[in-house]
Amino acid sequence: MFNKIKNVASILATGVFVAIFKPESALDFCKMTYDLIKDRGLDFEYVPPEDYESQNVKKGICILGPEKVGKTSLYNFLKSENSSGQTTVHEYKEFVYNIDKNKSIIIRKGIDIGGGTEYIHRYYEKMINDKKIDYCFFVFNAFKYLKDEDDEYQRHVRARLQFIFNKNILDKKAIIIGSHIDLFDADEKAEIAKKIKESTSDKSYSTLLTNEYLHLLNLNNEIALKTFFELIFTP
Ligand SMILES: Nc1nc2c(ncn2[C@@H]2O[C@H](COP(=O)(O)OP(=O)(O)O)[C@@H](O)[C@H]2O)c(=O)[nH]1
Ligand SMILES: [Mg+2]
Asked: How many whole angstroms from 143 Cα to the centroid of ligand 1?
């Protein structure tokens, strides 16, 4: 009974508001109200939309890694956008990512940082230790890592892995992504993970490169990314 009175009152109040401030929508309002009452009667219960925050599906992410490894490509995929090519810091607003038909996750607002070394000290530690960040992705170009003539790139990637390891990223869900695996020949693919692991086997941070943490991906392959994020975001 109380519901009925409350619903009638709110329909009337909204009706008055529409008539005064948005008379052009009055017809739509009448039709909507008529459909609602026809469907559910006057005693309908208002069911608030699912509260994502209380279900703990609002998550913060950070994507770290050198330049041109695919960090922005990952954001583009998650946000269904296309904004590759930038090298500076880009703030993004909270957005929804649909894991599959029935599951979605809200990604907290955050920043897509450039890959330059100047960002390591400015952002890495802060982001890794930020309590609102639940998943820390570190991306590097696996092809360049194993194929470059000199070992400068390897040293560069390892220094960052060491930095991340020292900052205790293992307290979070740390995900290491070796990108550009589409550039390898088909017969080389089986050995990629093994070779990457061998290159750091004597280092403390080699634990970051075990099967549990290391994922090899072509970041231009949407199907692979969909499967990957389903695995990551499904508890
Ligand atoms: N072939 C290939 N290209 C990729 C891959 N990931 C990223 N790219 C390309 O690399 C370039 C740089 O990517 P971007 O996401 O802007 O890198 P960021 O600098 O780390 O943000 C873009 O042209 C991407 O399309 C990958 O896995 N394979
Ligand atoms: Mg970028």
From this structure: 12
103 and 36, same structural domain? no
- Cβ of 218 less than 6 Å from ligand 1: yes
Beta partners for residue 141, in sequence order: 179
Token pair recorded at residue 210 = 């075990």
Report how far residue 210's alpha carbon sits from residue 62's, in angstroms, rounded to the nearest whole number: 20
Relative to the CA of 66, which ligand 1 atom is closest? 20
> pLDDT tens digit string along 97-145?
999 888 899 999 998 988 777 777 778 888 888 888 889 999 999 999 9
**Are residue 114 and residue 37 in the same domain, yes or no?**
no
Expressed as residue numbers, the domain containing 126 is 55-233
Instruction: Clarify whether residues 18 and 131 are in a common domain.
Output: no
* Pairwise CA distance, residues 197 & 203, whole Å: 10
Which atom from ligand 1 is nearest to the alpha carbon of 217? 27
